[in-house]
Amino acid sequence: MNLDMLVRAGQPPWHPVPTAGDIDVWDKYEFPICGSYRLDGRLVIFTLITTAGTRSLWAYVPVAPEAEAAVAEARFETEDEFNDFLAGCFTEREVVFAAAENLVITSKSDGIRIPVGRNTLLAMGAKWYAQRSAALYAELQKRLETAVASEPADPEELLSAAQGVIETLPVQAK
What is the residue range of 114's domain? Predict the structure, then answer.
């Protein structure tokens, strides 16, 4: 399955492409936080990894056709069993991460392989998010420096670049 097709900017994370069908919400808290959907006949699992304010980080993985029945028939006695099952769906698979603002996808990763280990989905998602943020920051910084250095300075470009930096970066480090 083409991983690039799993997620599209501008969509809600639990309905990440307009062509997603048969959406099955497995868990929700004010909004769906994990579940599955079908895309071109293939089953895809999604899950919320974490939130911070209005931002959220999500993961998506296509299910191998031979594993679809096991996923559909899975039942759990405890929350820990469910969490282990969900983690197993992503382990040693290529996944796509998506960043969302106000529950709307703003960007997505390429396929990233999730290694075996506890909390590796969170770790790899956070790593991608940090790399994405660093790249955005570098781009904004370059744009701002170019606007400042131009003679005469273009006030509209300078204002736009400054607003981009202020809008994108956090107000304070924790």
Answer: 3-118
